Each structure stands twice: as C-alpha cells, then as structure tokens.
Amino acid sequence: MTDINPPRNEVAGTDTPDRANRNAKLDQLESFRSDATDQALTTNQGVKIADNQNTLRAGDRGPSLLEDFIMREKITHFDHERIPERIVHARGAAAHGVFTSYGDHSWLTKASFLAAEGKETPVFVRFSTVQGSRGSADTVRDVRGFATKFYTDEGNFDLVGNNMPVFFIQDAIKFPDFVHAVKPEPHNEIPQAQSAHDTFWDFVSLTPESAHMVLWTMSDRAIPRSYRAMEGFGVHTFRMINAEGKSRFVKFHWKPVAGAFSLLWDETLKLAGKDPDFNRRDMWESIESGDPFEWELGVQVVEEEDEHSFDFDLLDPTKIIPEELVPVQTLGKMTLNRNPDNFFAETEQAAFHIGHIVPGIDFTNDPLLQGRLFSYTDTQLLRLGGPNFHEIPINRPLCPFHNNQRDAFHRQAIHKGRANYEPNSIDGGWPKETPPAASGGGFESYPERVEGHKIRNRSASFGDHFSQATLFWNSMSAPEKEHIVGAYTFELGKVERVFIRERQVNEILANIDLELARRVAENLGLPAPSAPSVAKKEPATPNSPALSLMNHLPGNIKSRKVAMLVADGVDGAAIDAFKAKLAEEGAMIKLIGPTPAPVTTAEGQKLVIDGPMDGLPSILFDALFVPGGAQAVALLEKSGDARHYLLEAYKHLKPIAVLGDARRMLAPLQLQADAGLLEGDSVDAVFDPFVQALAQHRIWAREAAAKAVPA
Ligand code: HDD
C-alpha cells in the first residue's frame, strides 16, 4: 500500500492565482489584474493605512469623527458593492478557454475565426439558470443559458444560446409577460427558482406556442448533471455569408465531448440544499484539476432556396430542424480550461449581446431574435451603469476599437486629438470607414429584400404549436417519458387552481400526446381527455433519435465521480487497486469516511479523507465503491449514514460495487444484485461490469425496484 492522499491544503491549484493556461485574451486581462502580495494596505488614493481596526474617535470611548476619511471611504465603497442582478440568467458561472477551427470554412462564411485549420480564438463562456436569483440553487428545473463570447480578430462575436434548441414564445414582445409569470409570484416572492406555481402554468396553459419548450423543460434536459454534459443551441436561425456574398441559413449547435446526461429529480431537490453550488463547483474543480470542459461547434446549413421546404417556418424559434433531416456539420472545438480570477470582475460584469456579430454572420427576421437585439444593450446600461461597458476588461475586444463615441460614466480611454466627429480634416479624417471586403473588411448587412405592410400580425406559418412537441415526446425512451410524466405531475401538483391544471392537461398535453395527457391527468385525479382540443398535425418525421439523451452517452467514464466508503480497518489493497484502475479510465475518486478524520486501513496505513458522509453525500457522485475489511464493515453496518449512503446511491440508479465483507450490508437493506449492483471478492471480479454500468450513466432497469427504497 503506497498511495496516501495528499492533505487538502496541498491539493495543487486550489488557490493559485497564477493559473497555467494562457491565450491572447488572458494576456490582455493580465494588465488589469491586481495582486496585493507584498503590498501595503492603502486608501483608494494610495495613502498607506496605519490602523484598519479602529475608527478615528474623540477619546477611547468617545464618538466617531466625520473626518475619518479612511473609514468613510471604506464604508461608502462597501455600501455600493452590489449592482442589479440580471433580470433573467442571474445565477451563473463562467470560464475562459479557446476555440479552435477544424478547417477553412470560407465556403460558408467569411468570419475570420473560422477561416483556417487550427486557428485559435479566445472565448469566455457563462452558463446560467434563468429564473432564479443570484443566490439560488444550481440544480433547479430550468433552462440553462450557454453564452459564448468569441474574442475574434474582427471583433467580438457573442453566441447567446441555451441548452435547449427552442424557446417559450415566438415574439419578443411576450418576453416580459413570460418572465413575470415564471419568476416568483409578485405578492410574496415565492417560490424561488421554480416554475411549479400558478402564474407560470396559468401563462403557459394560455400560450400554446410554449408547448414544445415547456415539454423540453419537463424533460431531463432541464436538470443537467454537469455543464460539461449539456448540448448548446443558438436557437434562432442565423445567416452565414461567404466572401462571394452567398448567404445560407444556419442553426448553431454545441456538442459536448463528454456526452449529455442528467440528474434525477430527487437528486436535484436534495442537491439544492446540500450543495446549491453543485454545477459551478463541478466546473471550477474540474478546470482547476486540469480537466477541461469541451464542446464541438456545429451548424445545420440550409440553402437560401430551401427556406420554405420545411413544414415549419425557419424563422419560428419554437421549432427545431430535426438533425436527421439536416445533419450537424462540425466547425471546430471549444476547450474551457481556465477559471476566472475574480467572479465579479469577470463573470458578473460580462455583457453578452446577441447583436455582437462579425462580418460573415448575420441575423434573420425571427421576431424573437429581432426583439433581443434591442434588449441586451438596454439591460447592460442599467446593470453596468452606462454605455462604456465595452471597456470593462472582460468585455473588451482583442482587436483595436476606435470611433467618435465619447464620454459618459466610467470612461476609461483617454482619447487624443481634437476631432471627435466624422468626417473631419483636423485629425486626418481618422478613424475612417473600411469598405466591405472578402476578408478584413467593414461589416455589411446581408442585402435581404424586404417589403410589406406595417402590421402587428403573427404569420400563419407560425401556427402549428404541437407537432414538434409530439415529435419530442415520440423520441423519448421509456425512462425519459416516465420522468416527463413525473415532472408535469410534480409541477401541476403545486398549482393551487384546479382550472389551470385542467387547462394544461386538456388544451396543451392532449394536443401533444393523449397518453401523456392521460397519465398526468390520472396522477392529478382529473378526467383523462379523450381527444385533442385542436385539429392535430402529425410530425413530418415520426421520431428523432438525436432528441433522446440515451443517444448521447460518451461510451466511457472519463471525469465521472466515484465515492469510496471507508472506515477504520478498511481493505487498503482493494482501495489502491480500484483507484489505480479508475484513474486509468480518467474517473475521479473521493474517499468518504465517517468523519473528516483520517482512517487507518487494515494494513495500518493512514488514509486522508476527502470528506465525511454528510458533507459529501452520495448525490454528489456518479457511482459508489464499498471495499471490504471486517472491522470497517462492522462500523459501517452500524452507521445509519453509511446505510443511507448505499440506499440512496441505489435509489438514484448508480453503479455500486461491494467487495468482500461489505457484501453482507446488502441483504439487511434488501438490495439485490443487478447489472449495476456488483458483488465480488476481488476488484478484478467487479471492475469491468462497474465501468460498463457507469458508462451507461444509470441503471435504468432498476428504476421500478428503486421506487420501493426509502432514501
Ligand atoms: Fe435572453 C440574458 C439566452 C430570449 C433578454 N439571455 C440571457 C442570457 C442568455 C440568454 C444565455 C445570459 C447571458 C449572460 O450569461 O450574461 N435569451 C436567451 C435565449 C433566448 C433569449 C437563447 C431565446 C432564444 N432574452 C430573450 C428575449 C429577451 C431577452 C426574447 C428580451 C426581449 N436575456 C435578455 C436580457 C438579458 C438576457 C434581459 C438579462 C441579462 C443580460 O441580458 O445581459 O437582456
């Protein structure tokens, strides 16, 4: 037995500001970083402070003096620390990284970051939940924001997407209504970060265009296991334009290298209390340990002349283009490999905007997209206090930026010269326009021909709200369908008004699928609808395998987290062997003990513990290993926490390997071996099936039996 865990304060990189990964953006940020090591404590004016413990007062016990500029400056600054949180997507976490183009994609776009094989562009990506406030839990049922800022050499390109490919509404004018409905109710500000309440279901049951997206949010997509395990989507149809001026329609996709998989609902509820930072901690710790988050960027491409060849409107943001109809072509790879140095300066002040595009990319007339083009600048003006937010270090382009916009709050640049207008002859006419060109030219909007009457009207081509929801439902595996029924039941069960429950079942679910409607109705004690309430259009494609998470597993166990339950007298050799094999597969291992104190193995070796059972509960892990050792098992058998650990891991369908003496813990808990509950005398006997089970993410066949487990 050689392997001893390093004590936690020696774990590499947990608080090292000098992180390894560099890129041009990180180098630019370097000049703004402030390091107080070996520096004197000063006021903001640079005056050294002699006493940071006591206010200036008249005598030991006398009143404080107004002239204490040190205390006043400190408290004034503190009073102003908070800025308005984002009206949506308030809770988020971000990381730096790099995008590498797989090739020269100039047949499609003249965007320079896609123009050459191996071309690298720094990125900053912020993931978020939508409805909750800044301090809410990570694991709530919600859409996840997936906002990427590419610092290209022709300006910043922001791809401000979500982890779902459609949206709740078709027109931006409905966004404030939708957000008001889903946010906590206005009279008592309850519930936090939950859609399970009357106003949300009132709105969506009256808004059939939301049916498809609400179905996505009731699916496992809304409770991702990790940010690294989510797909991302640009949602709208965009344009890409090449150097010849040829425009094509595109839909952006992020395909996670780690595969896509989710939590179970019961886990999310528990995690919200036991580790509200579950997703952001996972990203932080992985990146700190040198394990990056990776995606491939892809596009579905539709030729201009095929715009009307689908049975839905490409401009309708409540529709997908099934990947089986138009395959995703990959363009490059994004690697997130460095954490921010300061949450506020970088993550909180990052200002994304769907209107930040570069030559070679353009908008379409999607009415949701068009409204967003207004909203994002407007919101930054309030949130970041003025129009100079582009000068905040995290938002600055990497390429030069010059114009005649001047002054306003928080201006950083010191503009030289006398001419702040254009044309001018005083400063040589600079800065000057750049004509559009095949590369390096000025931005030119795609000259789309537009004509029409000035009207407020929804195109009839946006009128089918259900057939793609039916397609999604039809494409789910049996466990996924089960979870969707459970989610509608949970959410509608929290709705106080029965007529809202009924409306959702009869006028929305019945139009998606009668079986779905019947099952939810039964669970709610409502009569099951016998027919759709509208004339139903069948989906053009009966089934889209790309929609089911079951088809997105990575086929390996890289980065998956395994808990090892140990106590004094544990079989140290088995731990060593299991750890070594898991490390070969790229999995991560934590030792969980009865308390944070080190544990002594049967061989007399001291093992440093990563955490106790209550501090690092089973819900934080993907799988569990319980080694043998007579003395250890005798201790674990008597521990309610240890038995709960096993039961809970079983209930959440996780692979469990139980060795030697530990096998006798199963019978009293009434746990029976299955494809993922593995017993054996040696590590070799259980390891391969353990890895296979973990690569499947969960033991779905166990789900019915797990319902009987009280954990
Ligand atoms: Fe939005 C933030 C994604 C529709 C108005 N949105 C925001 C963020 C993401 C999205 C990921 C967080 C950015 C960050 O991390 O800072 N939003 C979407 C997607 C949509 C969408 C994928 C539909 C396809 N949004 C949408 C509409 C409107 C807004 C229709 C308004 C008409 N969104 C905003 C906002 C936010 C925002 C109020 C809040 C904070 C911010 O912009 O910077 O402007």
Search tags:
binds CIS-heme D hydroxychlorin gamma-spirolactone, 6-stranded parallel beta sheet, Catalase, Hemocyanin, N-terminal domain, 711 residues, Catalase HpII,  Chain A, domain 1, 4 domains, 26% helix, heme
Structure report:
Belongs to the catalase family. HPII subfamily. Pfam families: Catalase, Catalase-rel, Catalase_C. Residues 1-22, 421-440 are annotated as: Disordered. It catalyses: 2 H2O2 = O2 + 2 H2O. Decomposes hydrogen peroxide into water and oxygen; serves to protect cells from the toxic effects of hydrogen peroxide. The chain is globular and about 90 Å long. Helix 14 links the parallel strand 11 and strand 12. The protein starts with 23 loop residues before the first helix and ends in a 5-residue tail after the last helix. Helix 5 packs parallel to helix 10. The chain has four domains: 92-395, Beta Barrel (Catalase HpII,  Chain A, domain 1), CATH 2.40.180.10; 402-433, no CATH class; 464-551, Hemocyanin, N-terminal domain (Up-down Bundle); 555-706, Class I glutamine amidotransferase (GATase) domain (Rossmann fold, 3-Layer(aba) Sandwich), CATH 3.40.50. The protein contains 18 helices and 18 strands. It has helices spanning 24-30, 69-79, 175-182, 198-205, 211-217, 265-274, 278-288, 343-348, 367-383, 467-475, 478-493, 498-512, 514-524, 572-585, 630-638, 640-651, 683-695, 703-706, and strands at 92-101, 120-129, 144-152, 155-162, 232-233, 238-241, 247-256, 293-303, 329-338, 361-362, 561-565, 588-593, 599-600, 606-607, 611-612, 623-626, 656-659, 677-680. With 711 residues, the protein is α/β, with parallel strands linked by helices. The strands form three sheets. Strands 1, 2, 3, 4, 5, 6, 7, 8, 9 and 10 form a ten-stranded antiparallel β-sheet that branches. Strands 15-12-11-16-17-18 form a six-stranded parallel β-sheet, sandwiched between helices. The chain has a two-stranded antiparallel ribbon with strand order 13-14. Residues 86-89, 92, 126, 128, 145, 147, 160-162, 167, 172, 175, 235-236, 317, 350, 352, 368, 371-372, 375-376, 379 line the site of CIS-heme D hydroxychlorin gamma-spirolactone.
